[in-house]
Amino acid sequence: MQYRVDPKSGNRLSALGFGCMRLPRGLPGQVDLEKTGALIQSAVERGVNYLDTAYIYGGSEAALGEVFRRFPGLREKIFLATKLPFYMCKHAEDFDRLFDSSLERLGTRRIDYYLIHNLTAPADWKAMCALGIEDWIARQKAAGRIGQAGFSFHGSQGDFLRLLELYPWDFTQIQYNYSDENYQAGKTGLQKAAAMGLPVMVMEPLLGGRLATGLPGNAGALLEQAAPGRSHAAWALRWLWDQPEVTLALSGMNDMAQLDDNLLTAEAAAPHCLTDLERGIYPKVVEIFRASYRIPCTGCNYCLPCPKKVNIPNCFAAYNASYAVDLFTGFQQYTTSSSVSLSRENSGARSCAACGACARKCPQQIDIPAQLKRVARRLEPAPMRWGARLHTKMHGIKFLERFAKM
After folding, report:
1. Counting Cβ atoms within 10 Å, is residue 402 exposed (0-12), middle (13-18) or buried (19+)?
2. pLDDT of residue 346
3. Could you read off the pLDDT of 4-59 as tens digits, one per residue?
4. DSSP E strand stretches across 166-247
5. Buried (b) or exposed (e) across 40-70, using 16+ Cβ within 10 A?
6. Do 242 and 272 meet the contact criterion of CB atoms below 8 Å apart?
7. Contacts for 165 with CB less than 8 Å, ≥ 6 apart
8. Are strands 200-203 and 248-251 parallel, antiparallel or unpaired?
9. Which helix (H) or strand (E) holds 265?
């Protein structure tokens, strides 16, 4: 495992961090504690020492607390990060309420790296300051309940640069990957934060897995030709670790194969590890990827639940697949993820009421209602709806399940 030093605290952090937003889940959507515990224990034993969760990651904090209970001593081997949902803070008392809840779920007395979650504009930080957030952080640090204080960011580059100046932050966390080099905080924001002496944690290094398993075939062929046998995920992580300004990359690993591959990559990915030939491959892959990746959804699920029961991330994934692979694959994926919408509960893209609640919560700032209209036009045309409903009426819902497996 490669380690990089947090210049603010002196902590040695593993270049690979464990992102806990997408932990393994079983039915009905509960975190699979057996798989999660095995993954985290294996990761820590092999050198990973940074775990990142959040108050709003459904079941994640509680699951980590249970893992710490099942594996005594594991908590002391890692740096633990979680996040304050500032938009749930209307009164000063809310800081303690939410923070204490996180501590209880996690079964810990201290958060090593505490973030203001999804801080996107200076006005939001100033509103928190009006409630006394600065004094509150100082008290928690003095009491030993918070180690480092930072913020995660999904906004414009200009706002990121301004936020850096508004408080003596200990660290920051940004979305950054080779397909988003100039998106949100971007490379400019990364370099500015690093120049200020801040460690920078990177989220979405694989764009919600799209850069690992969702590349179009001709883009994947370019990578395979340049480095036979190297995974697409390894290409994405090596691009990040090549940059000395990146302190660590958070990967949401949910099976042992992903963990093994990421660990193998982390062992060899030091700053300036890329060759000139490798650096020349990325722009070619990005050009192909962007041509097929029409909606920049990362599958974070912040937009859910939808009051009309639309599974927004799945709709967008199917739409992108219809361009990245072919239309039939998009249809298959769409009927699998929203087959009910075409039969009984009407929860497909066409059910969107354009209420806008999802768009207000989207870290990628996607105009979700407008994009759902595009999905509906392409993947839920009238003949498809009529045919699906007729066959469902004649043969039952099993028809759609059989169609999805064709």
Report:
1. exposed
2. 44
3. 999 999 999 999 999 998 899 887 778 999 999 999 999 999 999 999 999 999 89
4. 171-175, 200-203
5. beebbebebbbbbbbbbbbbbbbbbbbbbee
6. yes
7. none
8. parallel
9. helix 256-268
